Write the structure tokens for this entry.
Amino acid sequence: MQTDFLNEARRQAEICNACRYCEGYCSVFPALHAERAFSDGNLTQLANLCHNCRGCYYACQYTAPHEFNLNLPQALANVRQQSWEEFAYPQSAAKAFQKNGALIALMATVGFAFFFWLAKQVATIGGEGFYAILSHNMMIAIFMPAFVFPLVSIGISLRRYWRSVDGGPVKFVHLKKAFIAAAGMKNLRGGHGDGCNFEDTDRFSQGRRYAHQAVMYGFLLCFAATSSATVLHYVFDMPAPYPFWSLPKLLGVIGGVLLSLGSVEMVRLKLKSDKTLAADKAFSGEVGFVGLLGFVAISGLLLYFLGSTTAMPVLLVLHLGAVLAFFVLTPFTKMVHGFYRLAALARDAQRTK
Amino acid sequence: MNKHSTTPGSNWDVVVVGGGNAALCAAMTAAEEGARVLILETAPKAYRGGNSRHTRNFRCMHHGPLGPLVDSYTEDEYFSDLMKVTGGKTHEGLARLAIRSSEECLPWMEEHGVRFQPSLSGTLSLARTNAFFLGGGKSLVNAYYRTAEKLGVTVKYEAAVTHIELDDDRVSYLDYTLADKTHRVFPKSVVVASGGFQADTEWLARAWGPAAKNFLIRGTPYNRGVVLADLLDQGVEQVGDPTQCHAVAIDGRAPKFDGGIVTRLDCVPFSIVVNKNAERFYDEGEDVWPKRYAIWGRLVAAQPDQVGYVIIDAKSLNLFMPSVFPPIKADSIEELAEKMGLPPVALKSTVEEFNRSCGDTSNFHPTELDGVRTTGLNPAKTNWARPITEAPFYGYSLRTGVTFTYLGLKVDENAQCSVGNRPIANLWAAGETMAGSILGQGYLAGFGMTIGTVFGRIAGKEAAAYAN
Ligand SMILES: Cc1cc2nc3c(=O)[nH]c(=O)nc-3n(C[C@H](O)[C@H](O)[C@H](O)COP(=O)(O)OP(=O)(O)OC[C@H]3O[C@@H](n4cnc5c(N)ncnc54)[C@H](O)[C@@H]3O)c2cc1C
Ligand code: SF4
Ligand code: SF4
């Protein structure tokens, strides 16, 4: 790993360890104060425990122009960003996409083009609704590998992470703790329940936490919608289209609305935030990623509402293209942070027993 | 007008001088009483909040658990803790007023945006007596500025008050400079909360002698005592000994100003401390460190060049809180001496003599007075005396770090200033600048913020009442 970022994080962690004023903000500080010297693995773990709420920046008496020049949120963001690139499989893909919104958009366009081409080739095969454009089996044939590949890739990455942070054998209680903390976004509450300092310097707000909840739960609901449709299709032999009062539609519409609103709000907050407290040059990649996620949600919703109009084929192709890009890019975009975050929380659960 | 510009619409009810804890408490209270309030803070926004931005807790009386505080801490216990550290040099009436009011301060602080956290790791001994601010003093200051602005308080940064004109027993106007221009305002009431004078090293040198030029200032460079001097010159009643200041021994590599908490060194009890001639000068193991912390500032100040050197060996490195600068490290005592600019032969012989005087160390206990002492050594080391033998050896330099000064404005229980035994009708003082009215010497951790909060609120209330 590039040692500059690690050394800078180490320098700052040593100052925090002598100060400790921020102990109550998040899980980073208790973990930090448990060490006396910081190995690269320690710093990687601390970096992945941090979610850039910035509480510790605005509270710090040593930020620039003070000569100690503390900016822990950025120091940890740089190490974190770098750890994702380093542990990714294949690494070059992460190096290309993590910080590059334009490339993410390009990838989505490639996805669109691919489906346009495919639709042209197979449109004549027949079927109803969406399947008049692409048969169900065809979609599965495309999406299964696009789904399995990221999982394998992320699995490899997490193993690399676990080694680097010296993780022990994972027990159920570690995972349970990690999921509970993530589900409530405990750490985004800021230690006092007032939220984080993100969009308006030192003012605490729940804005980012709520937006992030909407994105996360929206995404999970959409995912559940697709999964339930797959089960209906194969297990109960009930192919789409589904009526509104069906599991796939209900989950999908609620999830889609949450995901759309959450993504738009996330981008809005990000635009207002101080970029010097985030990872170097990662802004475009992050906004590109949230943009793609939002696009998936909005195009999915439109597809539902305009599914019986002539706009349908175009919308379907755009939606599927975006979904494909999203899945394939999961290990190489901000999306991967969720997996690392869970791993870091599980590792922290091992530390605190 | 002549060279003074009077800001239009500047008919302020209350002008508060300073932008730290005491100033903000006064400003918020006055604004809540309906006054039009102006804060004049000499620091730029990034450095607003004086020494208050460096604090971590305040000491609070309580009956039963309160916020982050456990058990209870009664008025009498609090007062007797105070008497112990001040050696009796305490104004009992004002001290008890501060102590008694501290209990209602905690919820008031929460209402005004302050958040607390359990006592920090490594400070368990304070869990009952001191309430820690989540994020430390700067987050407290940030929260207060937000609340003050919501209450309609106007804040001007880089506004240095240069003069408060006293006309018999009332203030008639106040001058401040902002962006190279002098401004004059005519407020109905004035609250002075501009701290001590420790950042003016010339003044420190006048009080202490030239040695003071080598002192480091632990907090803000902006507390230069300009307003304090201006008022004392006009005969406003003073209190406190100008030669008294709270000083501790901190890492000699700390910046001249604003090094704050991270420059403290807790390793003295496990070390030997020598001066620049490599001679020991005091019992390093006299008592547990929190109790001895404050005397080492003076001890180091009395050494040549006002500098000391702490020497420990490998077995002691992990016994104390880490500090901001890594220690100087060497494989032999001579090499360490060279790296630290000490005479190698002399240091070696001091260490050897110390080592020879150490006895049985099997009772060594890092957190208790263990009675592991030297014999036949002068000065003796009376606890934690283990020979310094295990390489690598580590060293830190020590300098005197001044926290605050005691000379200040004398106030009564209404925080009101006086001139020639008569109260000044519209002048109040709060915080460090009047703390000498309560403490003559010594210091109790967390009492500074208590004084600022209690008397800031009193001053704000009185100032608003006078203006209305
Ligand atoms: C490192 C450190 C740690 C400390 N920790 C604690 C602790 O944990 N608990 C505790 O109780 N105490 C602590 N103290 C002591 C504490 O800081 C003070 O008692 C307290 O902050 C005093 O508050 P104040 O508002 O009176 O002064 P300050 O907070 O110092 O505010 C003075 C203000 O006046 C302004 N000013 C000065 N001159 C002028 C002028 N001419 N015109 C306009 N503005 C002016 C300054 O810029 C500043 O904003 C600590 C001190 C230091 C240095
Ligand atoms: S971020 Fe600043 S205030 Fe917080 S623990 Fe670190 S040094 Fe202390
Ligand atoms: S930015 Fe927030 S989460 Fe990260 S270390 Fe600071 S307080 Fe903790």
The longest helix of chain A spans residues 136-164. Chain A has a mean pLDDT of 89. Residues 154 and 183 of chain A are 20 Å apart (CA to CA). Chain A is about 65% helix and 0% strand.
